[in-house]
Amino acid sequence: MLDFTALPALTHGTLLRTPPRPAPVHQLLLDSRRIGQATGSVFFALRGPQHNGHVYMPELYARGVRLFVVDRAAEIPGGLLAYPEAGILLVDDALDALQTVAAAHRRRFRVPVLGVTGSNGKTIVKEWLAQLLAPDELICKSPRSYNSQVGVPLSVWELNATHTLGIFEAGISQRHEMARLARIMQPTLGLFTNIGTAHDAGFTNHREKVEEKMQLFLDVDTLFYCLDHELIHAAAQQHLPEHRTFTWSRLHPHLAHVAVTVAESSGDRMVARVSLARPLPQEHTFTLPFADEPSVENALHALAVLLWRQVPAAEIQHRLDRLQPVAMRLEMKQALNDCYVLDDTYNNDLAGLNLALDVLARQPRRGRRTLILSDVLESGLAGAELYARVAAQLATHGVERLVGVGLEIKHHQALFQQVEATFYNTTDDFLRQFRPDAFHQETILVKGARRFGFERIVTAFQRQIHGTVLEVDLEALAQNLNFYRSRIQPGTRLMVMVKAFAYGSGSYEVANLLEFHRADYLAVAYTDEGVSLRQHGISLPIMVMNPSPDAFQVLRQYHLEPEIYSFERLHDYLTAARQQPLPAIHLKLDTGMRRLGFSETDLPELCALLRDNAAHLRVASALTHLAGADEEQHNSFSEQQLAAFQRMTPQLEEALGYSILKHALNSAGILRFPEAHMDMVRLGIGLYGVEATGREQDALRPVSTLRTTISQVKTLPPGETVGYSRRGQAVEYERRIATLAIGYADGYDRRFGNGAGEVVVRGQRAPIIGNVCMDMCMVDVTHISAARAGDVAEIFGPQLPLPELASRIGTIPYELLTNVSERVKRVFFTE
Ligand SMILES: *Cc1c(COP(=O)(O)O)cnc(C)c1O
Where on this chain does substrate bind (predicted)? Predict the structure, then answer.
């Protein structure tokens, strides 16, 4: 085990503080929110455009972390004296040091490592190869898609002496990054999946991108690739002699090691005929359990590796039959008795368990955190040590209840005495004894190795849910947040509007994510929205825009900060504040919206009141709202508003005798008036994936997808009408009509009726026919012959963008989002 005192020589760093005792390095820690075990963790204080790791040192130290790698001595909060028990290493660049440490770890193990890169399919190819080679090897692989400049070091760090093969993926977005990843990973084998348009921005052309990716493979003994990608083939020929490549092809069978011809392809499988010239001429036929092109290409890459290893054909087929689609994201599902289930039923190794527990720990508290866990496989550790580590992870992640399934975990049940635990021999045993009422208001992580078939457990937990679902992609939300963050100065604060059920997306899930990503403030419209966030454990400052005057005590109790917009409200608040201290307020200034707020002519009176009551009242901020921030035509009006605001606020500050936060801009304003960000901006619709100015929509990812299912498909003879009032007009030909399980009570606007709206079924648009009913509506699917009951219909989402849909009925995306009724179940996705 590497000791901390070996790091200075390795990284050319200087020990600012020598650890008082030997300090073996067990974990590399980059994120203060993800402390597993503090002892033996080394924190690398990385920095990014919006982020400086040094800031978290006091918090980490308080939580027991004792080893730090920093690159700015002057930025250590409190100076060295604040960390008497610590070891602190100063290096030139903390990221570089992290990579050097990982590279040194990698060098200790003389095992083959397969590096996977390419534009698409990296994670799937890696996961499939791990599945297909599992019978022969003990594999260490990157968790999920840990393939970046920090992901690769963390992946490689997981290697230990028991592994016989490493499979790691590498992803880059700029030039010169791949050489760094190659230095860490030191691959002996390589697989180049393909080249496409992903991450094009950092490169001048595809050739340059291929050349950059090739840097991973310069020292490999064998590179696997598909010869049909011409640029990849050219680059491989340039850098590697023929005998260090192993190729497959569908277009040039005589040039490749493996020639593939498609014999037959149907909906869900493909039969491939494969011939090899070497070592002996041979022909085989394999059935791949997929037929879509990306899956087929990924599977053929994996197949090439197996053929190269000379795994017998019958055995290859046997393994292919058990190949599973890879779940790329953790799904959060609403379940019975107010529980939520985090579905991670695909694999179960230690690194993956740790990641999934991180996600569990980040969920808002709704009662207990529960884990349903199968035997942990492929760890290379003896049972006692393995389950002791699992038990430690449960403790650090606040798991209170464990259901263990499998003989091994049951055998080690004595290690789990700190949680409420029950054990079963098999999944069937669990299901036989399953009593729904034994789970109540819990967040349940279901994590099992594939062969335990835990998807059956998830199904058992899922309430019979209404066919209409709003999917909220929390990962997209986080990306949109980062996009707006990249547009504001590091010192500008970010308030996020989570009013109206977070624009329909689900208040506490969104608020929880925002808290995790360190937003500065939240804002809601009404007091009870704020109370509900507090009851779900949200601790960020919250502004309430329209507090009810009779509930000031509630504001106090839940520490909610009211917006005050009139003298009447101010007097009420002051009266209450004289009895008992109340939270700070936000002053709303009306500069032209003419809705709520103090006008410029109110200022003298307002200032006098503030001055006289300085002892009872604290003002946190002053704000105004632009009437036309999103449109060019209102620019001069917006500028007048901003100028008025800038005239008014100094007077307030003068009266108060201290400075307050000043903020004016919503999502559109953030992008259009960068010079007016002031102390804080208020992000709303942009977070939810709609770019209100319409100019930078491509920079955002859609967050919400509203989808429903087809309940029935009918064939209508010519001349028949559809629905209420016979509004679905008769036509001359035979039609197929699908009835969808969504209506205006779900928030699907009646104005979409009679052809105004469309939905997407099997990738094609289908127009609404007849009137939208309360719980249902009908679409014409005559041209979509495959449409049948049970199919999903997208109402809005990636295939049917909200702005388009809104304009069809003359409204704005805000209305469509917030109209989705609360009876529609929200399903949340995270990475
Ligand atoms: C809703 C709201 C915002 C956010 O507006 P978006 O257009 O959704 O970005 C900002 N400020 C105030 C006062 C709001 O009410």
Answer: 595, 774
Domain count of the chain?
5
Domain range spanning residue 567?
A: 473-698
Is 190 contained in some domain? Answer: yes
Q: 656 and 741 share a domain?
A: no
Which of 588, 593, 666 is the pocket-test mutation for ligand 1 (most atoms within 8 Å of CB)? Answer: 666
Reduce the DSSP state of residue 820 to 3 states and report it: coil
Same domain, 766 and 783: yes
Which of 403, 430, 463 terminates a domain? The answer is 463
- In whole angstroms, give the CA distance from residue 653 to residue 406: 65
Same domain for 764 and 681: no
- Tell how far the Cα of 799 is from the centroid of ligand 1, in angstroms: 26
C-beta atoms surrounding 338 within 10 Å: 13
Q: Would residue 260 count as lying in a domain?
A: yes
User: Which ligand 1 atom is the nearest neighbour of the CA of 688?
Assistant: 8
Binding-site residue set for substrate = 595, 774
Catalytic residue, from 499, 521, 744, 814: name it: 499
Q: How far apart are CA 293 and CA 291, in angstroms?
A: 6
10 Å Cβ neighbour count for 729? 12
**Same domain membership, residue 283 and residue 173:** yes
Q: Are residues 717 and 571 in the same domain?
A: no
pLDDT more than 70, % of the chain: 98
Please tell me the distance from the alpha carbon of residue 151 to that of residue 817, in angstroms, as a whole number. 35
H helix runs in 261-379, sequence order: 293-308, 313-321, 350-362
Q: 227-243: per-residue pLDDT in tens? A: 999 999 999 999 999 99
Pocket of ligand 1 (CB under 6 A): 497, 625, 666-668, 682-686, 692
CA dist., res. 470 & res. 828, Å (int): 9
Q: What is the CATH number of the domain that holds 810?
A: 2.40.37.10
Give the 3-state secondary structure of 108-165: CCCCCEEEEECCCCHHHHHHHHHHHHCCCCCEEECCCCCCCCCHHHHHHHCCCCCCCE
pLDDT digits (tens, 9 = 90+) for 725-742: 888 777 888 899 999 999
Asked if 6 and 25 count as a contact pair (C-beta separation under 8 A), the reply is no
Same domain, 455 and 491: no
Give the atom of ligand 1 at the shortest distance from the alpha carbon of 629.
7
- Whether 333 is catalytic is no
Q: What pLDDT digit, counting tens, does each position of 624-679 carry?
A: 999 999 999 999 999 999 999 999 999 999 999 999 999 999 999 999 999 999 99
Distance 45 CA to ligand 1 centre (A): 35
What is residue 178's predicted lDDT score, i.e. its pLDDT? 97
49 and 16 share one domain: yes
> 200 in a domain, yes or no?
yes
pTM assigned to the model: 0.69
Confidence of residue 267 (pLDDT cuts 50, 70, 90): low
Domain limit, last residue, from 321, 347, 368: 321
**475-521 pLDDT, tens per residue?**
899 999 999 999 999 889 999 999 999 999 988 889 999 998 999 99
Segment holding 711, helix H or strand E: strand 704-716
Contacts of 280-284 spanning 24+ positions with Cβ under 8 A? 282/313, 284/313, 284/316
744 is an active site residue: no
> 56-78, pLDDT tens digit by residue?
999 999 999 999 999 999 999 99
**For position 71, which CATH number holds?**
3.40.1390.10
